[in-house]
Design goal:
Number of strands: 26
CATH class of the largest domain: Alpha Beta
Helix content: 25-40%
Largest sheet: 6 strands, mixed
Structural class: alpha/beta
Strand content: 25-35%
Length: about 500
Amino acid sequence: MFGTGSDVGKSIVTTALCRYFREKGLKVAPFKAQNMSNNSGITPEGLEMGRAQIVQAEAAGIVPHVDMNPILLKPTSDVGSQVVLFGKVHENSTAMEYHKKKEALFKAATDALSRLRASNDVVVIEGAGSCAEVNLMAHDIVNFKIAHHADASVVLVADIHRGGVFGQIIGTLACLPEDCKERISGFVVNRFRGDIELFKDGVAWIEEKTGKPVFGVLPWFDHVRIEAEDSVVIEKSSLTSRKKGNRPALAVIRLPHISNFTDFDPLMGLDGLDLIFVEAPVDLTEFSGVILPGSKNTRHDLSWLKDNGWADKIKQYANQGGAVLGICGGYQMLGEKLHDLQGYEGNPGSSDGLGLLPVETTMEGNKTTTLSTFSWLGRQGMGYEIHMGQTTRKGGHALFDVEARNQIACQDEDGCVSDEFNVLGTYMHGLFDQTEITRGILSRMGLTRIDVPDLCGLAAREKEYKALLEHVMRYVDIETMAGGMNHEK
């Protein structure tokens, strides 16, 4: 499943295909050779992989494994990324340095693909970005190089909502060499708004010009909630705005290097509550709570908070009794000091935190990647931890009692609560996948009347995967599209 560009819907259609093959009784697995995203998750072995492939594995009804996303690039700056290979930190690298190692990395990716093909009936391969970036094609190990290796047919997804869908499709084909064009079996047009009947002439034009079928035109949908691959979905989203109306609302600070923003997906679906990603400083007194999310470059984003006035607004809000929650990097920023003397996330040095929690953090070379179980005031929870830093609590109170990490029992603590009990920090991602934990946190924010459904976590997501497939099958000839794929191992 390749695309005419980034964020055109490749991941969503791949997720639907995984669910389709599962319901056909086939053993199916997703695969993306290289993912660039700060939105990641943890496998049962305690290894890190892209969140999109975890979602696709869930839709396929299988346990996520790092072979499904052997290479994960986590951007730390405009030119550098942390390279995660088979779930573990491999190195920090610039784009130029990374290109020089592509052959070895391609071998790692094809080995992973071979293992998946050997143990599954179908492997659904997802590409990255545009599959026709002519200046990058020689170094591209995610799109046609992997398709040639697997002898796989390709479905091209285009996004009509961003405009120029005819140019997207025809332009992509024009940029491709013949052997790549021949692999494209047809197209899916995504994010259509309006009367689909009015696009029949458009479908006919595409098919006449290309000689390839349009398998379907997929309407824009908002009745199904599937976790997004990366934060591009909130960069210009209607979620990113100021508070309007009288409904209670939570503010999530839209950090420059925001990570794991899907932590908040369950909150977006709650009736009677608005979740708003805010970037420019606003009056926080109108919000019931403020959340500082994770970050892949924590000291840089902490400086950003100070430079644009956010730091003062957050501190003033907390000092007046407002509820503040920091998760992972956001937790580190709420502390007194943040040290990254070796430059694991950016320029080496130390920074003063916001001083709202009595904790101090030091970045270390060993990355914590765990699936964790914990308890909080009698409530049981599960989450996952992904962080370089180690945080020492010097006062306040621990937030959670950690009972196991990666299925190994322990007696530990996580997080911190201020003496005033209105500022909370934790390393736990996935908090809001648990009904009782969500209710407890919302209660701390004075939101006791928000109805939090009992159905949560994977059970709730299963319902969404089923609804997604029903929606796609209503508008896309998925049987013909899937029938043209190479199903051989």
